[in-house]
Amino acid sequence: MIFTTLLIIHITSGSLALLGALGVASTKIFDVRHKWHLNAGRLFFSGMTLVFVTTLPMTLIKPNLFLFLIGIFSFYLAWTGWRKALNRSGVPCNQDFAAAIIMGVTGLVMVGWGGWSTQSGDGNGITLMVFGASVAGSHFKNFASSEKGRLKGNPESGPISFPGWPPLLQPLLHFWL
To answer: Is 154 found in the same domain as 111?
Structure first.
């Protein structure tokens, strides 16, 4: 009963996050007022936060490390976007450093668990390795750049980038994800 309730909240929150993401994207495509973008962003972040909050107890009730790691990964990307929207100066604070370290370590765990899962015949392992490698690499790089006093959302130090991939392909990879 508890799991079913959490699942309903999880799905509803995910749907709200999707609507918010579509709203954010449409405000950029159609160049509408900034207020609409802010409201759609708030809806997206609120939905993603509820998705994450419900993921934690759901993965405790029915253990699933894959979904737990993807939940952390997904929320971190939403959280960094929210932080960058709030922190206009780009100067990182302690929570930014802590989150970057936690996500870097989570990315390494995703790579390790993904490799082990792939060897065991689980196709989800490849997903974990790709997401884990991309986020760990970009976040350790982001952490190093923050030592220089900046933490800005440019394509090379954003919440997720694909080191070694041509910059022209970066938006296509983001769209695919």
So the answer is: yes
